[in-house]
What does this fold into?
Amino acid sequence: MMKPHVLNRRIHYWLTLLVALPLTVVVATGLMLQVKKQWTWVQPPEKKGTAKTPSLSFADMLEKVRSHDGFESFDWSNVQRIDVRPSKGITKLVLTGDWEMQLDSATGEIMQVAIRRSDWIESLHDGSYFLGDLSKLGIFFPAGVGLLLMLLSGLWLFWQPIQAKRRRRKSRLNPEN
It folds into this structure.
């Protein structure tokens, strides 16, 4: 029978191999997502509109999208989501092809058209980019569970020598025990 501390070390050792690649992807993309507001390559900066009260209709938004060069054939199937920011006076339309168009919520003026990579990076981060839920739940989730087990076994490996030193010190101070 294998001693518990030897088994713990083996589990820790082999889980490292299983967790390494997904963890590398999660950490690298997590770092990019942490600075997405500061790094314009990841997410375009938010502009400021003219009014705090949105007055632009959905039809007007789509018309503004179509008025921009290269977007003439866009319709509602090309709009992934609409993000209204009243405090900033803007409406962001996230479009297919990782495009983001920012409109002034009052005037409809196109304030910015730029590539938005944060959604793509997020799908890499959670694993859904590769095979959808299969890789998300079949690779990245187990890797997360493995990482949790490694953390716990690593803490145990850290605690064991401290506990052993305390026992030795206690036995030296109290030799009758």
About this structure: The longest strand covers residues 79-85.
